[in-house]
Amino acid sequence: MTEAEAGRPRAETGHLGLGARFAPRAVHRRPDLPASVRIWEVGPRDGLQNEPSIVPAAVKAELVTRLVAAGLSVVETTSFVSPRWVPQLADAEEVCSLLAPLRASRRASADLRLPALVPNLPGLERARACGVRDVCVFASATETFAERNLNRSRAEVLAASAAVAAEARAEGMGVRGYVSMCFGDPWEGAVAEADVVSACERLLEAGAEEVSLGDTIGVATTGQVVDLLDALARAGVPARRLAVHFHDTYGQALANTVTALVCGITTVDSSAGGIGGCPFAESATGNLATEDLCWALDGAGVETGVDLDALVETSVWMAGQLGRPSPSRVVQALSGRTRPDGDRVAGAASEEA
Ligand code: HMG
Ligand code: MG
User: Fold this and answer.
1) Given this model, what pLDDT does residue 19 score?
2) DSSP H or E stretch at residue 202
3) For the structural domain made of 31-306, what CATH number should be given?
4) CA distance 56 to 60
5) 8 Å CB contact between 120 and 85
């Protein structure tokens, strides 16, 4: 990069973060999209819970630290679930302890949130003992997934989530709710909008600040997204209390996300490098890749606060740790591209190995 290029502000050049070095392109603003989007990064939790191998706690903590350094202000770190059910995240305490310096950092006192998933009151107790300040409860729109995922009926899962949400809020913790299988269920097929609405209402009433709508198996299409968000709005659930969480099984996650943004959603879940899935739903693959989301939003002039260059480098590094390439198209495109000076993005070689 020339000295003149290095000093040019992004807005003037129309070149974007990493794009300024690798893929210059113009910003085409979309007035129908929000000015900024809050990205809720789920890779260290949703991604790593589904890995066949167990990633060491130190690698998990480094992943979280690198994601924060790349500009992500919410990074879901781990789950306080049964270690027998999800051995991949059995080291939640150790990961939290390694992240203690980050939690105590100046960034954390400003806007950083490092939430963890909690299924029940014993899980909340574990999280609290580790200094976790934000928790996520999770329920299901459908009966079968509630049983498969949490060994309880849909109503019992909602009751357990509500109990955790109420207690966590009473202690001043941040609380998010997830509702899974909002757009289709591999055992039950179509999911009634009313079942999604009632689950969201229950979690919000119990104290969740927001609810994330999970397309656990990635089957949603754009019209269905519009219809569900309309149904929620008609029921009095405002878009500002909702987030979207699309898995990318059928390649629809980005289209569905952009559709949700047009409908007024401003918080989007994604996973660095597109890693992820749910061990209790066979047809679930990775989440929308954070890089694919950032590429789309950068191009539309939507602020995310994320440095795409640093994010891609992190995902390439993580792919090396996992021993397989990232499924993200943007990671693949940018990490395979040579710089003008002939170097590749750091870590690209280990991903290819
Ligand atoms: P259970 O076997 O029915 O538990 O599992 P239990 O209450 O009968 O207790 C059995 C044992 O587990 C007891 O120990 C408990 O103490 C212990 P024992 O007496 O046998 O030694 N136990 C716990 N241990 C540690 N932490 C806890 C805990 N709770 C009980 N919190 C349970 C019920 C909820 C524990 C189990 O079903 C579980 O952990 N499920 C986790 C499922 C999960 O993590 N799924 C993936 C996340 S959800 C997701 O990915 C979807 C999402 O991304 C959105 C989307 O995509 O849709 C969020
Ligand atoms: Mg998920």
Assistant:
1) 46
2) helix 193-205
3) 3.20.20.70
4) 6
5) no
Q: Which amino acid type is present at position 48? A: L
SS3 129: helix
Give me the pLDDT at residue 337, please: 53
CA 232 – CA 346 distance, rounded (Å): 44
> 211 CA to middle of ligand 1, Å?
20
**Statement: the pTM of the whole predicted model exceeds 0.85:** yes
Q: Which residue has the tokens 């009632």?
A: 198
> In sequence order, what DSSP letters do the residues of 228-286 get, joined into one string?
HHHHHHHTT--GGGEEEEEB-TTS-HHHHHHHHHHTT--EEEEBGGG----TT-TT--P
- What is the whole-number distance in angstroms between the Cα of residue 140 and the centre of ligand 1? 14
Ligand 2 centroid from CA 1, angstroms:
39
Which is nearest to 241 in space by CA: 190, 158, 179?
179
170: tokens are 């009473």
DSSP state of 189: B
> pLDDT tens for residues 253-303?
999 999 999 999 999 999 999 998 677 877 678 999 999 999 999 999 999
Task: Give phi and psi for 38, each to the nearest 5.
Answer: -90, 120
Indicate which atom in ligand 1 lies nearest the CA of residue 160: 34
Q: Write down the domain spans for the chain.
A: 31-306
Distance CA 63, CA 59 (A): 6
Question: Among all residues, which ones are annotated catalytic?
Answer: 278
- List all residues whose CB is within 6 A of at least one atom of ligand 1: 46, 49, 79-82, 85-86, 117, 119-120, 122-123, 126, 138, 149-151, 178, 180, 214, 216, 245, 247, 278, 280
Q: Which segments in the chain show pLDDT lower than 70?
A: 1-25, 108-109, 277, 283, 337-353
**What pLDDT sits at residue 107?**
73
Among all ligands shown, which has an atom nearest to the Cα of 181?
1
Report how far Cα 306 is from the mean position of its chain's Cα atoms. Answer: 14
The token duo for 30 is 């979309």
